[in-house]
Amino acid sequence: MNPGEFNRLVEQAIARIPLEIRRYLDNILISVQRRPDRQLLAEMGLAPDEELFGIFTGVPLTERSPADPPLYPDTIHIYQEPLEAYCRSREELIEEIEITVVHEIAHYMGFDEDDLVALGYG
Q1: Does the record's keyword annotation contain Hydrolase (predicted)?
Q2: Which residue ranges form the domains of the chain, and what is each CATH number?
Q3: What is d(CA 39, CA 44) in angstroms, rounded to the nearest whole number?
Q4: Of 10, 64, 79, 85, whose Cβ has the fewest other Cβ atoms within 10 Å?
């Protein structure tokens, strides 16, 4: 799938996220990349062939200080190739992107797994 098509799927997936969660994306950049780089995987303790669908980079709200604003924008990185390899259909791909974005928002917000289960994402 070309990057433009995949970006449209990301937009569709984000539109499916309930507003109570999606509203937190107002201050988060969404970055779509082909795949995570090896250095990131190594820093996370993952093997080069392990799947990583997305990651949040930034300072979670629970760790912020009003006196020290973040140095970089909070970003959710979505990785196209691992998601495409994992999913067998367009609908499954949209669903997995949605789940990935919600989990990364959870890292930003400090949600726990019980919160995600209650919202249908656990």
Answers
A1: yes
A2: 3-61+72-118 (3.30.2010.20)
A3: 9
A4: 85
- For residues 32-51, one letter each, b for 16 or more C-beta atoms within 10 angstroms of the residue's C-beta and e for the rest, the string is beeebeeeebeeeeeeeeee
Helices (H) and strands (E) in the chain, counts: 6, 3
Cβ(105)–Cβ(21) below 8 Å: yes
Determine what percent of the chain is predicted with pLDDT higher than 70. 98
- Cα angle at 38 between 101 and 44, to 5 degrees? 60
**In this structure, which amino acid lies at residue 73?**
P
For every residue of 41-88, DSSP letters joined together read: HHHTT--TTS---EEEES--GGG-BTTB--SS--EEEEEHHHHHHH-S
pTM: 0.86
Quick: pLDDT tens for 42-101. 998 998 888 999 999 988 888 888 787 777 889 999 999 999 999 999 999 999 999 999
Amino acid code (one letter) for 34 = R
